[in-house]
């Protein structure tokens, strides 16, 4: 999975609150930023990966660092509701605005896409149809997306890990819609604002099936309320099958029952967008 690239200095922006970080660690053993850090180290061996917590009141870059010092900033998922005016959302959106102003390339998944959207003048709302839980199905690149390097290697339709209750309502002026599906109109987009460029997806290429199962368990009550499951027992049964496939990714019976193919079960294919983003960074640096 690793390839030869110039050494990169990467900053992971983890906008989960401290309480959510600890809850996630208790569930799957790592916070969203730690998941990103580990994946980036596998995709870009030797890369320097640092973290910042923009939602926190005492958030600060590592000592002596400026945003322009980084090759890229990568925004994790988060349960923040970007349409809500809270200190956490204001700080996170302001941080994204600073990234745009610095001209540092950025990538984000799930809430990361929503943060960039709001910072550049777009809007976010609760999902208009229903939550996407476990997987976003039949994601389809737009005409622009079919030729965009973010989605290089993705087929005409694919699934991806996803769990979100909010979505992009309107992209900012000048943004390019790259992928959509029948539940969420904006599944991938490029946003240019100020001096910066952001590539983002509503789904989670960075998380494995064990983390999908953990997210379902953490959000079981909400899934029952949304009528995606009859009760918590149904959520647990579904999560257990997903977790079993994580342990045994070659179980064709489980993949068939869950309706998944190699776009999700094969880690290399699942990480397509992150790998493409890093390849683009490396190519830009060489150029």
Q: Pairing-aware structural class of the strands and helices?
A: alpha/beta
Order of helices and strands: EHHEEHEHEEHEEEEEHHHHHHH
Q: Judging by the overall fold, what is the CATH architecture of the largest domain?
A: 3-Layer(aba) Sandwich
Tally of separate helices = 12
Whole-number count of domains: 2
The third-level CATH topology of the largest domain is Rossmann fold
Cα separation of the termini: 23 Å
Question: Could you give a short account of the major beta sheet?
Answer: 9 strands, mixed
- Overall number of strands: 11
Which overall shape is indicated by the principal axes computed on the Cα atoms?
Answer: globular
* Integer-rounded radius of gyration: 18 Å
* Proportion of residues in extended strands: 15-25%
| Residue runs with pLDDT of under 50 for 5 or more positions | 1-5
The CATH homologous superfamily of the largest domain corresponds to: Class I glutamine amidotransferase (GATase) domain
């Amino acid at each position: 999975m690793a390839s030869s690239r110039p050494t990169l200095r990467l900053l992971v922006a983890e906008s989960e609150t401290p309480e959510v970080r600890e809850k996630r660690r208790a569930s799957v053993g790592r916070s969203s930023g730690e998941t990103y850090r580990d994946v980036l180290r596998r995709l870009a061996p030797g890369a320097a990966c640092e973290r910042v917590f923009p939602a926190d009141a005492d958030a600060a870059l590592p000592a002596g660092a400026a945003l322009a010092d980084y090759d890229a900033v990568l925004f994790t998922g988060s349960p923040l509701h970007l349409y809500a005016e809270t200190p956490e959302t204001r700080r996170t959106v302001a941080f994204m605005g600073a990234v745009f102003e610095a001209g540092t390339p950025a990538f984000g998944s799930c809430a990361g896409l929503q943060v960039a959207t709001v910072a550049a003048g777009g809007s976010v709302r609760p999902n208009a149809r229903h939550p996407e839980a476990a997987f976003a199905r039949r994601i389809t690149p737009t005409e622009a997306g079919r030729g965009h390097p973010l989605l290089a290697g993705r087929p005409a339709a694919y699934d991806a890990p996803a769990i979100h209750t909010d979505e992009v309502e309107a992209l900012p002026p000048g943004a390019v819609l790259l992928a959509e599906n029948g539940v969420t109109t904006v599944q991938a987009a490029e946003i240019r604002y100020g001096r910066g460029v952001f590539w983002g997806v509503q789904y989670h290429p960075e998380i494995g099936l064990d983390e999908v199962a953990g997210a379902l368990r953490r959000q079981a009550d909400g899934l029952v309320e949304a009528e995606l499951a009859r009760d918590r027992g149904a959520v647990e049964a579904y999560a257990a099958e997903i977790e079993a496939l994580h342990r045994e990714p070659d179980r064709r019976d489980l993949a068939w029952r869950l309706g998944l193919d190699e776009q999700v079960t094969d880690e290399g294919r699942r990480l397509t967008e992150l790998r493409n983003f890093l390849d683009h960074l490396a190519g830009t640096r060489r150029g």
